[in-house]
Amino acid sequence: TSNAMWGGRFAAGPDAIMEAINASISFDKRMAAQDIAGSRAHAAMLAKQDIITDKDAETIREGLLTVLSEIESGTFEYSTALEDIHMNVEARLKEIIGEPAGRLHTGRSRNDQVATDFKLWTRDQFDAAISGLTALMAALLEQAEQGADLCMPGFTHLQVAQPVTWGHHMMAYVEMFARDRSRFNDARARMNESPLGAAALAGTGFPIDRDMTAAALGFDRPSANSLDAVSDRDFALEFLSAASICATHLSRFAEELVIWSSAQFKFVTISDRFSTGSSIMPQKKNPDAAELIRAKVGRINGSLVGLLTVMKGLPLAYSKDMQEDKEQVFDAADSLMLALAAMTGMVGDMKPNAPQLEAAAATGFSTATDLADWLVRELGMPFRDAHHVTGALVAMAETNGVDLPELTLEQMQTACADINENVFEVLTVQKSVASRISYGGTAPANVRAQVKRWKAELE
Ligand code: ARG
User: Fold this and answer.
1) pLDDT of the residue at 6
2) How far is the CA of 86 from the centre of ligand 1 (A)?
3) Is residue 4's pLDDT more than 80?
4) Distance, CA 263 to ligand 1 centroid (Å)?
5) Residue of 25, 111, 326 with the most ligand 1 atoms within 8 Å of its CB, for mutation
6) How far apart (Å, rounded) are the C-alpha atoms in residues 236 and 407?
């Protein structure tokens, strides 16, 4: 049998394979609530503009609410033959209210309808990402505040570089996640235009009021070009790109937690709540949540590249290719929200291992730069010469199997006769971090000021 929605020009129904490749209901049923909200706004507008009667609009409204409650209670029967959520809802509406259901689609097409539904769905995900990031930042701020004075090694090339504080390290992630949050905010503001009323591609001759439907659905304004409105998926691409960058940050942090929780580092204890054991090795405690967060970026990046590839080369306006947009965003959004929640839980629970961090901070000649700076400041030595003298002292310490503060003054004076007792003051990690008071530096006072600034910002 031919299709109820467009069967007029068709003598036969679709091949089974056609139906299988064409249908999107298996995934786009996630937009049911958005579809019904869009239809309610459209019907109310049609009545206000006298395109349908108030009575029909009221019947449609009540019918849509019934459909929604069937969907929410799980009694709704989805049909693959009806292809997508839009036609499933409309067909059920027709069963419930009869003839007025056929008037709902006046001045509208599935092309503007799907763009509207998908935008509403994605907009919620922008909001979820923003609040998920805010929660993560709050958890990091607590860690930073607790550990503002706690010294740890700072690394470059994963080799010990200079001492930093735990708080400073946590605050580096606060900055990264704050940029992520602002990317989601920017994109959300840009995407908030209503496609509804663009109809198939050219607009409509009915006297619709697009401002009214835009306002009813929480959009800032109707989109200004009907061709663009039905063919634009920038909002999905921007969500996916902001999600990819955010997931990249989460992945880098997760990698640090995996390293830090190892027996070789012992920098941090991840709570039992976010760890798993091994079925064969009784001693094992594995950082699975961190590893999975590290991995989620793979699917999220994949979704971004997938949708970019679908969209490239598509002529205006709607093409069915665009039906392949939703699963990418659904999967990326699910992955991102889960990763954000897991990271927030893990950060809230984790315990820095202070003795181990402080001890590690003092290894690897981490205060060598402080020594070179001291030679410049106290002896007036050019920095390049100071670098050379310090290098010789590091080599001496390494040969003797000690760290820099353990060299004697006499040993130091073989590299530079003018070095005096005071040099030892700058060689401790506490002195080193306390001296880094330049704006943005690791000094505990700076970290406290940044924690305060961000706490005020988050309120
Ligand atoms: N299921 C379709 C999608 O996701 C809805 C729009 C169909 N429009 C059309 N002209 N066939 O894109």
Assistant:
1) 74
2) 9
3) no
4) 54
5) 111
6) 60
Contact between residue 197 and residue 49 where contact means Cβ atoms under 8 Å apart: no
Query: Counting Cβ atoms within 10 Å, is residue 85 exposed (0-12), middle (13-18) or buried (19+)?
Result: buried
Give the nearest ligand 1 atom to 83 CA: 1
Selection from 186, 177, 192 nearest residue 131 by Cα: 177
Show which residues are catalytic: 157, 278
Q: Residues lining ligand 1, CB < 6 A?
A: 24, 28, 84, 110-111, 114, 318, 320, 322-323
Cis peptide before 317 (omega within 30 of 0): yes
Q: Which atom of ligand 1 is nearest to the CA of 28?
A: 4
Instruction: Provide CB contacts within 8 A for 404, sequence distance 6+.
Output: 365, 367, 368, 371, 393, 394, 397, 427
- Of 13-22, 290-299, 335-344, the one with minimum mean pLDDT is 13-22
ipTM of this predicted structure: 0.97
Predicted confidence (pLDDT) at residue 86 exceeds the cutoff of 80: yes
**How far, CA to CA in Å, does 343 sit from each of 227, 287, 329, 339, 434?**
41, 12, 21, 6, 30
First to last CA, the chain: 60
The whole-number pLDDT of residue 9 equals 84
**Both structure tokens of 254:** 């997760």
CB-based burial of residue 58 (10 Å sphere; 0-12 exposed, 13-18 middle, 19+ buried)? middle
What pTM was estimated for this model as a whole? 0.94
Cα four-point dihedral sign 61, 65, 67, 68: positive
Work out which ligand 1 atom sits closest to the CA atom of 24: 1
Residue 181 CA to its chain's centroid (Å): 8
Question: Could you give the residue ranges of the DSSP H alpha helices within 261-367?
Answer: 288-311, 326-349, 354-361
d(C-alpha 344, C-alpha 9), whole Å = 56
From 6, 84, 88, 113, give the residue whose CB has the most ligand 1 atoms within 8 Å, as the site to mutate.
84
The per-residue pLDDT for 427 is 92
DSSP state letter for 27 = H
DSSP 156: E
Among 441, 347, 419, smallest CA distance to 146 is for 347
